[in-house]
Amino acid sequence: MDQQLGGISMELRHLRTFETVARTLSVTQAARELHYAQSSVSDQIQSLERELGVDLLDRSQRKVRLTAQGAVLSEYTDRILKLLEETRWAVSRPGSELAIGTLETVGLHLLPTVLTYYRSLYPQSRVRVGQDSRGELYKAVRRGDLDLCLTFGEPPADASLRFETLAEQPLVVIVPPGHHLAERGRAGLDELVAEPFLATERGCGFREMYDNTFGAAPSKEPIAEVSGIGTLGACVAAGMGCALLPLISVRGQADRGEVAVVEVGDTDLRTTVTMTWLDRNSTNPSLAGFQAVLREQLGG
Description:
By secondary structure, this protein is of the alpha/beta class. Helix content is 45%, strand content 23%. The strands form 4 sheets. Strands 5, 6, 7, 8, 9, 12, 13 and 14 form an 8-stranded mixed β-sheet that branches. Helix 1 packs across helix 2, helix 2 crosses helix 3 and helix 6 crosses helix 12. The radius of gyration is 27 Å and the shape is elongated.
Protein backbone atom coordinates (compact mmCIF):
# COMPACT_ATOMS: atom_id res chain seq x y z
CA MET A 1 0.00 0.00 0.00
CA ASP A 2 1.46 3.34 -1.03
CA GLN A 3 0.68 6.86 0.08
CA GLN A 4 1.12 9.73 -2.37
CA LEU A 5 2.69 12.64 -0.50
CA GLY A 6 3.56 15.64 -2.62
CA GLY A 7 4.32 13.44 -5.63
CA ILE A 8 6.39 11.05 -3.53
CA SER A 9 5.26 7.42 -3.27
CA MET A 10 5.90 6.22 0.28
CA GLU A 11 5.36 2.61 1.21
CA LEU A 12 3.88 2.16 4.66
CA ARG A 13 6.19 -0.76 5.34
CA HIS A 14 9.14 1.59 4.79
CA LEU A 15 7.65 4.05 7.28
CA ARG A 16 7.13 1.26 9.82
CA THR A 17 10.71 0.16 9.34
CA PHE A 18 11.97 3.72 9.76
CA GLU A 19 9.83 4.19 12.89
CA THR A 20 11.39 1.06 14.41
CA VAL A 21 14.92 2.17 13.59
CA ALA A 22 14.23 5.67 14.96
CA ARG A 23 12.77 4.22 18.17
CA THR A 24 15.49 1.62 18.80
CA LEU A 25 18.39 3.55 17.22
CA SER A 26 19.60 0.21 16.00
CA VAL A 27 19.31 -1.44 12.58
CA THR A 28 20.04 -4.78 14.21
CA GLN A 29 17.28 -4.40 16.80
CA ALA A 30 14.84 -3.13 14.19
CA ALA A 31 15.55 -6.14 11.97
CA ARG A 32 14.99 -8.44 14.94
CA GLU A 33 11.65 -6.81 15.86
CA LEU A 34 10.39 -6.75 12.28
CA HIS A 35 11.76 -10.18 11.34
CA TYR A 36 13.71 -8.71 8.44
CA ALA A 37 17.30 -9.22 7.37
CA GLN A 38 19.50 -6.27 8.33
CA SER A 39 20.18 -5.66 4.65
CA SER A 40 16.43 -5.35 4.03
CA VAL A 41 16.11 -2.72 6.78
CA SER A 42 19.04 -0.76 5.32
CA ASP A 43 17.56 -0.99 1.81
CA GLN A 44 14.19 0.34 2.99
CA ILE A 45 15.78 3.29 4.79
CA GLN A 46 17.85 4.11 1.73
CA SER A 47 14.72 3.92 -0.43
CA LEU A 48 13.05 6.51 1.81
CA GLU A 49 16.12 8.72 1.61
CA ARG A 50 16.12 8.58 -2.18
CA GLU A 51 12.43 9.44 -2.35
CA LEU A 52 12.76 12.37 0.07
CA GLY A 53 16.12 13.53 -1.19
CA VAL A 54 17.62 13.81 2.30
CA ASP A 55 19.73 11.75 4.67
CA LEU A 56 17.65 10.33 7.51
CA LEU A 57 20.46 8.61 9.40
CA ASP A 58 23.86 9.97 10.40
CA ARG A 59 26.27 7.28 9.21
CA SER A 60 29.44 9.09 10.25
CA GLN A 61 29.57 7.14 13.53
CA ARG A 62 29.08 3.50 14.41
CA LYS A 63 26.01 4.21 16.56
CA VAL A 64 22.80 4.99 14.69
CA ARG A 65 21.72 8.62 15.01
CA LEU A 66 18.92 10.54 13.33
CA THR A 67 19.76 13.57 11.24
CA ALA A 68 17.66 16.70 11.75
CA GLN A 69 15.50 15.65 8.80
CA GLY A 70 15.26 12.15 10.25
CA ALA A 71 13.98 13.54 13.55
CA VAL A 72 11.27 15.50 11.71
CA LEU A 73 10.22 12.42 9.73
CA SER A 74 10.17 10.37 12.93
CA GLU A 75 7.65 12.73 14.49
CA TYR A 76 5.37 12.61 11.45
CA THR A 77 5.76 8.86 11.06
CA ASP A 78 4.55 8.29 14.62
CA ARG A 79 1.45 10.36 13.88
CA ILE A 80 0.80 8.66 10.52
CA LEU A 81 1.05 5.14 11.95
CA LYS A 82 -1.07 6.02 14.98
CA LEU A 83 -3.77 7.49 12.75
CA LEU A 84 -3.66 4.41 10.53
CA GLU A 85 -4.10 2.17 13.57
CA GLU A 86 -7.01 4.28 14.81
CA THR A 87 -8.63 4.09 11.38
CA ARG A 88 -8.25 0.31 11.16
CA TRP A 89 -9.61 -0.12 14.70
CA ALA A 90 -12.59 2.20 14.12
CA VAL A 91 -13.55 0.47 10.86
CA SER A 92 -13.25 -3.04 12.31
CA ARG A 93 -15.44 -2.33 15.37
CA PRO A 94 -19.22 -1.94 15.02
CA GLY A 95 -19.88 1.66 16.02
CA SER A 96 -23.35 0.84 17.41
CA GLU A 97 -22.04 -1.62 20.01
CA LEU A 98 -20.37 -0.71 23.29
CA ALA A 99 -18.52 -2.97 25.68
CA ILE A 100 -18.59 -1.59 29.23
CA GLY A 101 -16.77 -2.97 32.26
CA THR A 102 -17.51 -2.10 35.84
CA LEU A 103 -16.88 -3.00 39.44
CA GLU A 104 -19.68 -4.98 41.05
CA THR A 105 -20.63 -2.09 43.35
CA VAL A 106 -20.73 0.51 40.60
CA GLY A 107 -22.61 -1.84 38.28
CA LEU A 108 -25.21 -2.65 40.90
CA HIS A 109 -25.88 0.82 42.26
CA LEU A 110 -25.03 3.33 39.51
CA LEU A 111 -25.13 1.72 36.10
CA PRO A 112 -28.78 0.56 35.76
CA THR A 113 -30.26 4.07 35.56
CA VAL A 114 -27.46 5.18 33.24
CA LEU A 115 -28.03 2.25 30.87
CA THR A 116 -31.79 2.75 30.87
CA TYR A 117 -31.45 6.42 29.98
CA TYR A 118 -28.81 5.69 27.33
CA ARG A 119 -31.08 3.14 25.67
CA SER A 120 -33.94 5.64 25.63
CA LEU A 121 -31.72 8.03 23.66
CA TYR A 122 -30.10 5.39 21.42
CA PRO A 123 -32.61 2.53 21.06
CA GLN A 124 -30.66 0.92 18.20
CA SER A 125 -27.47 0.60 20.23
CA ARG A 126 -26.26 -2.61 21.82
CA VAL A 127 -24.44 -2.55 25.14
CA ARG A 128 -22.46 -5.42 26.64
CA VAL A 129 -21.68 -5.07 30.35
CA GLY A 130 -19.17 -7.14 32.29
CA GLN A 131 -17.85 -7.05 35.85
CA ASP A 132 -14.33 -7.68 37.09
CA SER A 133 -11.68 -6.41 39.47
CA ARG A 134 -10.24 -2.95 38.89
CA GLY A 135 -6.89 -4.23 37.61
CA GLU A 136 -8.51 -6.62 35.14
CA LEU A 137 -10.82 -3.89 33.88
CA TYR A 138 -7.87 -1.64 33.05
CA LYS A 139 -6.15 -4.49 31.23
CA ALA A 140 -9.29 -5.15 29.17
CA VAL A 141 -9.49 -1.47 28.20
CA ARG A 142 -5.83 -1.49 27.12
CA ARG A 143 -6.43 -4.59 24.97
CA GLY A 144 -9.46 -2.97 23.35
CA ASP A 145 -11.81 -5.62 24.74
CA LEU A 146 -13.70 -2.88 26.59
CA ASP A 147 -14.61 0.55 25.28
CA LEU A 148 -14.83 2.01 28.78
CA CYS A 149 -14.69 0.94 32.39
CA LEU A 150 -16.11 2.44 35.58
CA THR A 151 -14.11 2.13 38.78
CA PHE A 152 -13.34 3.85 42.04
CA GLY A 153 -10.14 5.88 41.94
CA GLU A 154 -7.81 6.79 39.10
CA PRO A 155 -6.19 4.26 36.75
CA PRO A 156 -2.44 3.70 36.82
CA ALA A 157 -0.34 6.12 34.77
CA ASP A 158 -0.50 4.95 31.15
CA ALA A 159 -0.19 7.13 28.06
CA SER A 160 -2.67 4.94 26.19
CA LEU A 161 -5.44 5.53 28.75
CA ARG A 162 -7.63 8.55 29.34
CA PHE A 163 -9.81 8.99 32.39
CA GLU A 164 -12.30 11.43 33.86
CA THR A 165 -13.74 11.77 37.35
CA LEU A 166 -17.53 11.65 37.27
CA ALA A 167 -18.47 11.95 40.93
CA GLU A 168 -17.20 11.64 44.48
CA GLN A 169 -18.36 9.15 47.06
CA PRO A 170 -17.86 9.53 50.81
CA LEU A 171 -16.12 6.70 52.64
CA VAL A 172 -17.87 5.51 55.77
CA VAL A 173 -17.41 2.82 58.38
CA ILE A 174 -20.06 0.16 58.82
CA VAL A 175 -20.48 -1.50 62.21
CA PRO A 176 -22.79 -4.27 63.45
CA PRO A 177 -26.21 -3.29 64.80
CA GLY A 178 -25.91 -2.47 68.50
CA HIS A 179 -22.26 -1.48 68.23
CA HIS A 180 -21.30 1.25 70.69
CA LEU A 181 -20.55 3.65 67.80
CA ALA A 182 -23.80 2.94 65.96
CA GLU A 183 -25.98 5.27 68.03
CA ARG A 184 -23.53 8.18 67.74
CA GLY A 185 -23.11 7.76 63.99
CA ARG A 186 -19.74 9.51 64.00
CA ALA A 187 -16.24 8.71 65.22
CA GLY A 188 -12.71 10.01 64.81
CA LEU A 189 -9.84 8.02 63.34
CA ASP A 190 -8.27 7.80 66.80
CA GLU A 191 -11.35 5.91 68.04
CA LEU A 192 -11.63 3.72 64.95
CA VAL A 193 -8.02 2.58 65.24
CA ALA A 194 -9.04 0.67 68.38
CA GLU A 195 -11.77 -1.28 66.54
CA PRO A 196 -11.32 -4.62 64.74
CA PHE A 197 -11.64 -4.18 60.97
CA LEU A 198 -12.26 -6.50 58.06
CA ALA A 199 -10.96 -5.65 54.60
CA THR A 200 -10.83 -7.05 51.10
CA GLU A 201 -7.72 -8.70 49.70
CA ARG A 202 -4.61 -6.77 48.70
CA GLY A 203 -4.78 -5.53 45.15
CA CYS A 204 -8.46 -4.70 45.47
CA GLY A 205 -9.50 -1.05 45.20
CA PHE A 206 -11.43 -1.24 48.47
CA ARG A 207 -8.33 -2.54 50.23
CA GLU A 208 -6.38 0.40 48.82
CA MET A 209 -8.94 2.76 50.40
CA TYR A 210 -8.49 0.99 53.73
CA ASP A 211 -4.69 1.06 53.57
CA ASN A 212 -4.64 4.73 52.58
CA THR A 213 -6.86 5.58 55.55
CA PHE A 214 -5.12 3.51 58.21
CA GLY A 215 -1.68 3.25 56.63
CA ALA A 216 -0.08 5.39 59.35
CA ALA A 217 -1.22 2.94 62.02
CA PRO A 218 0.86 -0.28 61.88
CA SER A 219 -1.55 -1.96 64.27
CA LYS A 220 -4.43 -1.63 61.81
CA GLU A 221 -3.83 -4.80 59.87
CA PRO A 222 -7.33 -6.20 59.29
CA ILE A 223 -8.35 -9.15 61.44
CA ALA A 224 -9.56 -10.92 58.28
CA GLU A 225 -9.39 -10.50 54.51
CA VAL A 226 -12.69 -11.17 52.78
CA SER A 227 -13.23 -11.54 49.04
CA GLY A 228 -16.31 -9.70 47.81
CA ILE A 229 -18.25 -6.75 49.19
CA GLY A 230 -21.36 -8.84 49.80
CA THR A 231 -19.50 -11.28 52.04
CA LEU A 232 -17.65 -8.44 53.75
CA GLY A 233 -20.92 -6.70 54.62
CA ALA A 234 -22.48 -9.96 55.84
CA CYS A 235 -19.52 -10.56 58.17
CA VAL A 236 -19.93 -7.07 59.63
CA ALA A 237 -23.67 -7.64 60.06
CA ALA A 238 -22.90 -10.86 61.94
CA GLY A 239 -20.75 -8.94 64.43
CA MET A 240 -17.28 -9.96 63.27
CA GLY A 241 -15.91 -6.43 63.00
CA CYS A 242 -16.10 -3.13 61.11
CA ALA A 243 -15.34 -2.18 57.50
CA LEU A 244 -14.44 0.97 55.57
CA LEU A 245 -16.35 1.27 52.29
CA PRO A 246 -17.93 3.83 49.92
CA LEU A 247 -21.35 4.87 51.17
CA ILE A 248 -23.04 3.76 47.98
CA SER A 249 -21.95 0.17 48.53
CA VAL A 250 -23.49 -0.11 52.02
CA ARG A 251 -26.60 2.04 51.75
CA GLY A 252 -28.88 -0.94 51.03
CA GLN A 253 -27.65 -2.88 54.06
CA ALA A 254 -27.99 0.20 56.23
CA ASP A 255 -31.55 0.88 55.03
CA ARG A 256 -32.49 -2.70 55.92
CA GLY A 257 -30.98 -2.33 59.39
CA GLU A 258 -28.35 -5.02 58.82
CA VAL A 259 -25.46 -2.63 59.58
CA ALA A 260 -25.08 0.88 60.97
CA VAL A 261 -23.18 3.65 59.18
CA VAL A 262 -20.59 5.65 61.10
CA GLU A 263 -19.14 8.78 59.54
CA VAL A 264 -15.47 9.56 60.09
CA GLY A 265 -15.75 12.87 61.88
CA ASP A 266 -12.27 14.34 61.89
CA THR A 267 -11.44 14.04 58.18
CA ASP A 268 -13.17 14.16 54.82
CA LEU A 269 -12.70 10.66 53.42
CA ARG A 270 -13.76 10.32 49.80
CA THR A 271 -13.14 8.27 46.70
CA THR A 272 -13.97 9.04 43.08
CA VAL A 273 -16.11 7.30 40.50
CA THR A 274 -13.98 7.34 37.36
CA MET A 275 -14.51 6.40 33.73
CA THR A 276 -11.46 5.18 31.83
CA TRP A 277 -11.13 4.57 28.11
CA LEU A 278 -8.49 3.99 25.47
CA ASP A 279 -7.12 7.15 23.94
CA ARG A 280 -7.42 5.81 20.40
CA ASN A 281 -11.14 5.18 20.98
CA SER A 282 -11.89 8.84 21.74
CA THR A 283 -13.44 9.41 18.31
CA ASN A 284 -15.93 6.55 18.60
CA PRO A 285 -19.34 8.31 18.35
CA SER A 286 -21.13 5.61 20.37
CA LEU A 287 -18.63 5.99 23.18
CA ALA A 288 -18.96 9.77 23.11
CA GLY A 289 -22.72 9.43 23.46
CA PHE A 290 -22.41 7.08 26.41
CA GLN A 291 -19.87 9.33 28.09
CA ALA A 292 -22.25 12.28 27.73
CA VAL A 293 -24.96 10.26 29.49
CA LEU A 294 -22.55 9.29 32.26
CA ARG A 295 -21.64 12.93 32.83
CA GLU A 296 -25.27 13.95 32.89
CA GLN A 297 -26.45 11.15 35.19
CA LEU A 298 -23.49 10.87 37.56
CA GLY A 299 -21.72 14.19 37.32
CA GLY A 300 -22.22 16.99 39.81
